[in-house]
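Contributing new records

If you add data, match the layout below exactly. Sequence lines come first and carry their own label; structure lines follow with theirs. Keep one chain per record. Anything else will be rejected by the validation script.
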Amino acid sequence: MSADTVLITGAARGLGEALARAFHSAGWHVGVSDVDGAAAHALAASLDPEGRTAIGITLDVRDVAQFEAARDAMLAQFGSVHALVNNAVVTKARPVLEIDPDEFSAVVEVNLRGTFIGCQVFGRLFKAQGYGRIVNMASLAGQNGGTATGAHYAASKGGIITLTKVFARDLGPSGVAVSAIAPGPLDSPAVHELVPAAALSALVETIPVRCLGDTGFIARTAVHLAGRDAAFANGAVWDANGGLFMR
């Protein structure tokens, strides 16, 4: 049996890189896509210099045609696509009364519109083939309104949680499972760039387990949710926040 295949968006660095490496280590064939095409191709080459099990793809998730081209590149290279991980993200931290409407729209365009387009383009493919897995990267900020992030980021992530439920309901009968992961603050470059060191130390003290999340664990959770046996996780939002948010 040939390996399952996955396209990961925003995969060139940070959590996206962890996702690409986790799927590849688990035996998947991986499409490493990113708006930074050079970085995506470099990471794919580091996973497989011969390009048999990993390819780089330039993808601006805001563009339907580019998403369709990424789908077609996966089909051309691997013959099939079994999973999509919507990870591409823009993170901004700004007080809500200081957010310019254009900046709000720019964040939502990548995070929410990009996830919608991905779910729609690949949802159609997966429905037609009678099988597929979509894993959306949500966030604790989309559940509690955010603490270290801006309202635009939090609102977009809350929207991703809702989209996950809508696509899960509509695609579930066709053999397609759609789920989301909602991490709290992670030990990642994005978090360290966003939050000053002193504030980050104070933030860690508010987390019951007193540490930041591990990107490797989040990535392995995505691999788990993309598995053949994950159908019953359809519509689920998997929390991983150290106990900051419990329901």
